[in-house]
């Protein structure tokens, strides 16, 4: 009986020890399983699992939504000239972390030698108006490019240096708008090269190609929804190792129905006026809002976006309007670019009419 009890105790101890051994044995951790989600023709593919930018919260605080989208869109589109989507995948930026970001957006000082904004007390004059201690750099946005599937191996970097156009006049507190030429010269002669020099000091970045665009905000205070236009790219530079230089670019969004649009694009402006009147007549509703904007590069229209905003309507009314628009959209005969008409009930999109260049039949998309 005593022998049997000892055997049972020994068996219990053996089971306990073997159980602990099993718990302590852990499988060897393998590499992260990365896959590629293919982009469309001429577009970048992304790596998954998707990793968000460590600076995402900062961007959400600093930008109007219209600028956040436009900065990313233009940086990605313009990067294609240097990082071909057929050869590179894209991911959110990871080189500039919170510490780098804080250093760069500061005013230059003993504690912040790489601060991109001028030292306290600097006086800048624009057309006779004095600006005390200006803040020229509003933000820095980054994306990364990879020639393979290793997200940790960065083969190229795209940076948008976001310039603050609206400054404050010393003494009066009145706004001062800096021209594209002024902002470009500030970036070209000083800030842009200092940013590149700082990035080269980061481990692993000494020889990585860097594409830098200079983006000028139209405003950083308009936060309400409406007809506000985004900013635009005013310059660019491509830097391999320590070589590279800036070039000025010409692009902008133009609001149709303005004097500027009428003077620079008289035919399109006239077509838009006719289109607007016809839509109002068709709906028999003077309260329908019709706004249009064009994106232009080197004075050539790249896209035309029109918003039709109305109050409560039946489905058939919206459907009929979309059908009518799909017929009348051909009135913009001088534009060889995508045309998109967004039909909205209050602020919600309900139907979208889109016409591609070379295709006479627009498509209608219902948004539910």
From TrEMBL:
Domain of life: Bacteria
Listed InterPro entries: CamS
Gene3D superfamilies linked to this entry: sex pheromone staph- cam373 precursor domain
Sorted UniProt keywords: Signal
Signal peptide: 1-23
The protein, known as: CamS family sex pheromone protein
One Pfam family cited in the UniProt record for this chain: CamS
Lineage: Bacteria, Bacillati, Bacillota, Erysipelotrichia, Erysipelotrichales
Keyword Hydrolase attributed: no
Organism of this sequence: Erysipelothrix amsterdamensis
PROSITE patterns linked: PROKAR_LIPOPROTEIN
């Amino acid at each position: 009986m005593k022998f049997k009890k000892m055997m049972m105790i020994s068996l219990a101890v053996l089971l306990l020890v073997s159980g602990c051994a099993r718990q302590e044995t852990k499988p060897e951790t393998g590499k992260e399983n990365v896959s590629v989600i293919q982009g469309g023709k001429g577009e970048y593919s992304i790596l998954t699992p998707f990793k968000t930018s460590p600076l995402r919260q900062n961007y959400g605080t600093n930008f109007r939504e219209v600028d956040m989208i436009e900065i990313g869109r233009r940086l990605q589109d313009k990067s294609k000239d240097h990082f071909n989507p057929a050869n590179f995948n894209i991911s959110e930026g990871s080189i500039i972390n919170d510490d780098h970001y804080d250093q760069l957006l500061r005013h230059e000082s003993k504690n912040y030698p790489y601060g991109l904004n001028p030292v306290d007390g600097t006086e800048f004059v624009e057309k006779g108006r004095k600006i005390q201690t200006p803040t020229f750099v509003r933000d820095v946005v980054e994306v990364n490019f990879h020639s393979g599937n290793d997200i940790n191996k960065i083969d190229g970097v795209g940076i948008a240096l976001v310039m603050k156009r609206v400054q404050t006049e010393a003494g009066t507190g009145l706004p001062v708008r800096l021209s594209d030429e002024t902002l470009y010269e500030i970036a070209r002669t000083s800030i842009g090269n200092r940013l590149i020099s700082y990035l080269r000091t980061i481990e692993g970045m000494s020889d990585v190609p860097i594409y830098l665009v200079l983006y000028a905000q139209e405003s950083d205070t308009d936060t309400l929804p409406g007809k506000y236009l985004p900013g635009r790219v005013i310059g660019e530079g491509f830097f391999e190792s320590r070589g590279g230089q800036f070039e000025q670019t010409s692009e902008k969004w133009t609001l149709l129905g303005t004097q500027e649009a009428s003077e620079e694009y008289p035919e399109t402006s006239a077509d838009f006026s006719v289109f607007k009147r016809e839509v109002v007549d068709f709906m028999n509703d003077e309260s329908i809002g019709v706004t249009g904007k064009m994106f232009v590069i080197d004075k050539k229209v790249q896209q035309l976006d029109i918003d039709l905003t109305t109050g409560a309507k039946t489905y058939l009314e919206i459907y009929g309007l979309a059908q009518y628009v799909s017929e009348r959209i051909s009135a913009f005969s001088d534009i060889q670019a995508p045309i998109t008409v967004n039909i909205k009930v209050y602020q919600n999109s309900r139907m979208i009419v889109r016409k591609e260049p070379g295709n006479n039949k627009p498509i209608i998309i219902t948004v539910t």
